[in-house]
Amino acid sequence: MKSNPVKFFLLLIPLLLFQGWLMVYHQESMIFAELPVELPADVVINDGGKNNVWTYTKWIPHSLERKFFQISQIRRGSIHTGGKTLIDEHVELKSITEFIMYLPRALQVGLLSPFPEFWSGEGSTSANTMGRKIVGVVTFAFYFILIGFLYALFVYRKSALFWTMLLFCLVGILLYSYTSANTGTIVRTRYGFYMLFVSFGCAHLVQLLQSYFKNRAKMKQV
């Protein structure tokens, strides 16, 4: 798969234009949690009571910190909603530093959840209890398929198009890992991004198996 700069920019430019359109024309409708005007570093913002909800940072632009604060508040709402599939409910991400420290865990949750602890046990309904067992089987299969995706990383390591797709999907998955502490919600919302990884992994596993059986057949003929 050869990298074509023209195709790369044809893919990248619409994504950037779409993001710009969202920021310019949908800004007012997306405002739901606002930081105060710029404050000195390390100032702690609370929710009007004893709960600290954010520690202000000085080393990034205020407009960018506002986005992180909004993500933090969405996650806080997700935690307070509750549920039987909460994960890392003790992590509320109250500063930029906490966002950075949580990145490896967010990748783990986004790419490998639901974890085995959610493959069995009682759900909120009998259907959810059965769903846990089904999800366990599917997730185990996905773990195996992701081995093929690692091979795809090697095959397309020089492809700018592939890495653009990979980065776009990772950002989408991470967004849901950060905003939600509910495993069920993460699994549902990451689906479109995650299935691209699964598709690449499945295709390359099949390719590896085909190569293996062809080589085995040739050895038998010798």
Description of the structure:
The chain is mainly alpha-helical. The protein has one domain (32-221). It is 66% helix and 3% strand. It has seven helices and two strands. The protein has helices at 5-25, 62-81, 96-112, 126-155, 160-179, 183-189, 191-221, and strands at residues 44-46, 52-55. The protein has a two-stranded antiparallel ribbon. Mean pLDDT is 81; it is low at 27-31.
Biggest sheet, spatial arrangement of strands: 1-2
Low-confidence stretches: 27-31
SSE string, helices as H and strands as E? HEEHHHHHH
Based on Cα principal axes, name the global outline: flat
Structural class: mainly alpha
Helix content, binned percent = 55-70%
The percentage of residues in β strands lies in under 5%
Distance linking N and C termini:
33 Å
Main sheet makeup: 2 strands, antiparallel
Number of strands: 2
Summarize the structure.
The chain is mainly alpha-helical.
Main attributes of the structure:
single chain; 222 residues; mainly alpha; two-stranded antiparallel sheet; 7 helices; 2 strands
